[in-house]
Amino acid sequence: MSMSDPIADFLTRIRNAQMAKMPVVSCPSSKIKIALSKVLEQEGYIDGYAVNEQQGKPIISLDLKYYEGKSVIEEIKRVSRPGLRNYKGKEDLPKNRAGLGISILTTNQGLMTEKQAKAAGIGGEILCTVF
Fold first, then answer.
1. pTM to 2 decimal places
2. Is the pLDDT reported for residue 2 higher than 80?
3. Do 93 and 119 form a contact (C-beta atoms < 8 A)?
4. What pLDDT digit, counting tens, does each position of 62-100 carry?
5. Is the dihedral of CA 10, 13, 18, 22 positive or negative?
6. What is each CA distance from 125 to 43, 51, 86, 90, 110, in whole angstroms?
7. Angstrom distance (rounded) from CA 117 to CA 91
8. What is residue 121's DSSP assignment?
9. In terms of C-beta density within 10 A (0-12 exposed, 13-18 middle, 19 or more buried), how is residue 101 classed?
10. Residue 70: which residues within 8 A CB-CB, separation 6 or more?
11. Short-list 77, 65, 63, CA closest to 8
12. DSSP alpha helix (H) spans, 3-83
């Protein structure tokens, strides 16, 4: 059976692993999951990621980040979903909790945060928010 929303599954695996205080979480890899992991690493929400092969299929492993016993990611939430896409123009990009969190967008120039998209003067589809 195929998954209808692999990005939501990826975010749920991260959320569940951090609630269980696991140091590493793994899931099937794809280009968008690698790009999401890269943005999370650049913004300091995870320690790193690696793509390995198991039984001939690519698997992505994320090294989760904790500070004083608490996970760095307080909340990670899917915004745009297959049944209800959420597109925003460059003027309408959201500001998260007074600039403390980030929104990750997919644009014609790749995945980036709302701050990077605003600086580049482009809009896109809001994939998720991270606090």
1. 0.95
2. no
3. no
4. 999 999 999 999 999 999 999 999 999 999 998 887 878
5. negative
6. 19, 25, 6, 11, 11
7. 10
8. T
9. buried
10. none
11. 77
12. 6-19, 31-42
